[in-house]
Amino acid sequence: MTLPTRPRRPALPTAAAAAAVAVLTACGAGGPEGDPGASNAPADGYPRTVEHFLGSTEIPAAPERVLPLDAAYVDSVLALGGTVVGFTTFAEDTEALPDYLLDSDWNTGTSDGAVPVGLLWEVDPEAVAATSPDLILSAQVRHGDGYEQFSEVAPTVMSETTGATWKENLVLTGAALDAEDEAERLVAEFEERAAALGEEITAANGGEAPTVSAVRFAGDADGVRLYTPQSYIGVILEDVGLEPGPGVDTGSEEIVTYHSQERLLDLDADHLFVATYDDGGADGVQESKEEYQAAPLWGELTGEITEVDDEYWISGVGLIAAHEVLDDLAEIFGVDPQR
């Protein structure tokens, strides 16, 4: 059974995705819409019913083989000590999960033997079946069109989206893994660490929080992107207590894309964090970046510019990635990382 293809390039955080999934086994089911994250599990944990954006899913037993179809859920499962058996990728030649994810102190799960099951926007149904999952996790914005088919493979739980909702998605994962309390504890722990780090940064900056802009180059057609507080990285920077640069529209959508070099000064702040999507040379990302950075207005930016790792600053969209960002911020500002 084939589902509609994606409407735009999915390697970017807001892209919609679609999947092709064969009706292979029957382990789960969906129902009416409910509040994300709610659970009416009995005392022993399972079977439990998890209410999520696309329905109500019964999980009959503790999941031992979890298939997260989005990077946000790979992160969440590993942060909660679960077992990841497969994952989607942004590039066809990717065979392993990112090193930052595997090496992190906040990864308490396992992904030994985990295999790619296709591109984020083009899931391979045979690869999905081969992982023999007992739980599938994703988001409606990624794979909503395949929800019914995925549910025939294994119990499937989906949030509405990813990005700025990464904390809620961690709690939703906790609901499926009988780990709600742990998920909430991890969120609180992160927020406490971020706030403590922010106090250190503010003190080192003379008692005033510096302004920041998170910028991304993702290809010629995409120009340059500026992330607002309504984005994944924006939530992290706000948790740290860093102020958006004057050009950031704090009430806008999560990403503002500038297709003209005339808007480059809108990026300015005390500190600019610049991420670059790794397209493997296929989409002209590096060429576009060089063109923008060679523009006269780029030279007029007054803030300190720091290149950051796109894998976890922009694409990670989860707790483990967020802690890696905090590590970077501590190094950038020369303060204690508050681990």
From TrEMBL:
Protein name: Iron complex transport system substrate-binding protein
Residues annotated as domain Fe/B12 periplasmic-binding: 65-337
Pfam families noted in UniProt: Peripla_BP_2
GO biological process: iron coordination entity transport
Subcellular location: Cell envelope
First and last residue of the signal peptide: 1-28
Superkingdom of the organism of origin: Bacteria
Organism the protein comes from: Nocardiopsis flavescens
GO cellular component labels: outer membrane-bounded periplasmic space
Gene3D superfamilies: Nitrogenase molybdenum iron protein domain (3.40.50.1980)
